[in-house]
Amino acid sequence: MKESIQRISLQDIDLADETFSVNFRPNLEPLRASIQAVGLLQPVLLQETDDRYRIVCGFRRLWVLRESERDEIPARVVGPITADDLEWFLLSLQENLTTRGFNPVEKAIALWKLIHRFKVEPNRVVQAYLPLLSLEPNEKILKTYLSLAEMEEEVKRFVLDEKVSRSNIRLLSQMRSEERRALLPVFSLLKLGENRLREILTLLMEISRRERTDLREILDRPEIEAVLSDRELTPHQRTERVKKALMGLRYPRMKGLEEAFEERRRALRLPEGITLHHSPYFEGKGLRMELRFESMEEYRAILSALSELPNQEAFRKLVEFCEDAPLPNRTNLSR
Q1: DSSP output for 29-76
Q2: Which of 152, 191, 251, 320 could staple 235 via S-S, CB 3.0–4.6 A?
């Protein structure tokens, strides 16, 4: 590869040509600080074209240099036909791998370009280029990253910021573009770890398929809107209530069990400090009791109230209800 170091005017560089770029939300601050402190240590690599220069390596360096309002920069320049575009792209990948690595979205963009821009066979990408990007050579993984590359910019930002897993990326890929966009404002109000995100995405998709309705219509339902609009709730509380509302929509019979339990619990008229809970989503029998007190006097009052519970008909009915409530299999709960 013949190249020469030249001083090139920034006006002669086509900054809009991102053929060899896979950048997505790069952190420029360390590079900016380095260039301000010691200058440009590694010149960018440019390729001559008919009228301007195309960037092969050094997009981030050029962005920082342009901020400094320089007129010219030092660059390594190669001729227009010294290699084909795939070779230049691989060179760019290798240089970035040795200096900074790639985030998940950048890996997705790189894989998408290998197949759709540079026409590399998918099997070749699986065997040769997934390992290059520190990914297992697996067709399912390739499909996951290709789906991510085609998602909307705001969804890519969400995936990157929240460190969304591959399994949840696959769930998002099964939705339409407008549905993914509708989810993002909702997610901003919730506290979502990987498990909760997977549960909520799965529930939404199951309800959508079961009722043959758009996911956005589900989000607009009163029981969901009421939770999302309640500013008194913490993100964690909001998340749990949204999940509960979705479970009720997905499993109508469980919603009926929940309402029956609440009716029996209210009939007890328990004093403050005593709370009864059924097993989560009625996935087991029995009751859990929670006690809260701040003084010995409150503790004694709670013990006195507890001693009276076995004599109450309402308590007996609640215990029997929990004993008899069918352990849910998801098929029965959907009815």
Answers
A1: HHHHHHHHHH--SS-EEEEE-SSSEEEEE-HHHHHHHHHTT-SEEEEE
A2: 191
Instruction: Look at 155 and 258; give whichever has higher pLDDT.
Output: 155
pLDDT value at 328 more than 90 = no
Could you read off the pLDDT of 269-323 as tens digits, one per residue? 888 889 998 887 777 778 889 999 999 999 998 999 899 889 899 898 888 888 8
* Number of domains, the chain: 3
Q: Is it the case that residue 259 has pLDDT exceeding 90?
A: no
> How far apart are the C-alpha atoms of 259 and 257, rounded to whole Å?
5
Copy the structure tokens of residue 81.
Answer: 């036909």
What is the pTM assigned to this prediction? Answer: 0.79
Roughly how many angstroms between the first and final C-alpha of the chain, as a whole number? 69
The domain that contains 4 carries what CATH number? 3.90.1530.10
CA-CA-CA-CA torsion sign (307, 313, 318, 322) = positive
CA distance 238 to 217: 19
Residue 47: strand pairing partners: 54, 78
Tell me: pLDDT of 327 over 70.
Answer: no
Contact 6, 75 (CB under 8 A): yes
Rounded to whole angstroms, how far apart are CA atoms 145 and 170?
9
- Do the domain assignments include residue 72? yes
Q: Of the candidates 308, 313, 314, 307, which has an alpha carbon nearest to the alpha carbon of residue 268?
A: 314
Specify if 282 maps to a domain. yes
Q: Where would I find the beta strands (DSSP E) of the chain? A: 3-9, 44-48, 53-57, 72-78, 274-278, 287-291
* pLDDT exceeds cutoff 50 at 331: no
Asked whether residue 153 is assigned to any structural domain, the reply reads: no
Contact 109, 19 (CB under 8 A): no
Residue 63: count other Cβ atoms within 10 Å of its Cβ.
Answer: 15
Residue where a domain stops, chosen among 101, 116, 132: 101
Residues 239 and 258 in one domain: no
